[in-house]
Amino acid sequence: MTIWGITFDMALLNDAVQIFILYLVFYWLLRAARGSRFGQVLTGVGLLVAARSAFTYLFHFSVLSRIVQGLLFYLALSSVVIFQPEIRRILATIGSLLFQDRTRYLNYRGRVTPEMLTGYICKLAQRQMGALLAIERGISLKGYEVSGVMLDAIISAELFLSIFKEPMPLHDGGVVIRHGRISSAHCLFPVSVRSELSESGMRHRAAVGLSEETDALVIVVSEETGRISVAHNGRLIRYPDTGADSRASLVRWIRKAMPQQKTAYEQIAEWFNHRREKAARLFSKGKAEKKTEKAEESANAGDNGRQITDVECQKEGENKKA
């Protein structure tokens, strides 16, 4: 096949396309499973398959190869049952990439910045007010909003204090944040059944449970100690205090969960400004280079003039002597 005067081998092109598709599939699978128990098991299975292939190729262990192949088959069947929550979350992540909500790219008024949200959460921690917040990312949390009270309100410290203060009717349950606004409050989240969380409260277990089911970033404030915890991808990270390091880490988590999206007009304007600034820099650089060249030419012309004058003076002196 010839394209634009370049001849391609169809067999090689077909192999290259298949390798690229497999690369994308494995890349997105490993990215979705990263940090979870399923991802660790998937890595172990991959190492086991690689070791089996290497030993079979180098030492021709045919019997061991058959045994390991049979174990891998039953392990693949059992992993569907054992890692059902992780597999469901991975499939939901892939589905969210295909059917992403386009409204998240609109410019919503009243959105809060990561620094502001971190400050509001630290105020709750300083007052030891128990709180549970879920920031929606790729996987929609609308299924959990049905159990709560719809708000669609601008985030503020006063609103947080009003929601999570006892005995207010909305202080139990979690808050869902979408597009930098409070979408709903008093929501019920799934509770994790991990044994290592047996001594944790219901808020922490609900935070981990929701992070196991979805890719949301869940933030917890303990009402007993006032400590802030972050649950993501089935892991719980506890911060010892609300110092500068903890605030900076929390800002990074929130900025990753809710990046500041821009409208199409803002993106086009930013592109034109970038191009204009680049053209201005190139124009200024060209003018500076031209000035430098002119200065060098003038300096060279002056040197040539002085050399000619010196030669003429020497000739005149020789003529006078003669």
Verbal overview:
By secondary structure, this protein is an alpha+beta fold. The protein has 2 domains: 2-98, no CATH class; 104-257, DNA integrity scanning protein, DisA, N-terminal domain (YojJ-like (1). Helix content is 60%, strand content 13%. It is built from 10 helices and 9 strands. It has helices at residues 10-33, 37-59, 62-82, 84-98, 114-126, 142-145, 157-164, 202-213, 244-257, 264-321; strands at 2-3, 6-7, 131-135, 149-154, 174-178, 181-187, 217-221, 228-232, 235-238. A 7-stranded mixed beta sheet has the order 4-6-5-3-7-8-9, with helices on both faces. The chain has a two-stranded antiparallel sheet with strand order 1-2. Strand 7 and strand 8 (228-232) form a beta hairpin. Helix 1 (10-33) crosses helix 4, helix 2 packs antiparallel against helix 3 and helix 5 (114-126) crosses helix 9 (244-257). The longest helix is centred in the C-terminal third of the chain and has 58 residues, at 264-321. The chain starts with a strand and ends with a helix. The model is unreliable at 102-109 (pLDDT under 50).
Give the SSE layout.
Elements (H helix, E strand, L loop, with lengths): L1 E2 L2 E2 L2 H24 L3 H23 L2 H21 L1 H15 L15 H13 L4 E5 L6 H4 L3 E6 L2 H8 L9 E5 L2 E7 L14 H12 L3 E5 L6 E5 L2 E4 L5 H14 L6 H58 L1
Parallel strand pairs: 3-5
Antiparallel strand pairs: 1-2, 3-7, 4-6, 5-6, 7-8, 8-9
Helix pairs in contact: 1-4, 2-3, 5-9
Task: Report the uncertain regions.
Answer: 102-109
Please tally the helical runs, counting DSSP H or I stretches of 4 or more residues.
10
SSE-based structural type? alpha+beta
Rg from alpha-carbon coordinates:
33 Å
Kindly report the spatial arrangement of strands forming the biggest sheet. 4-6-5-3-7-8-9
In which range does the helix fraction lie? 55-70%
Task: Report the major sheet.
Answer: 7 strands, mixed
Number of strands: 9
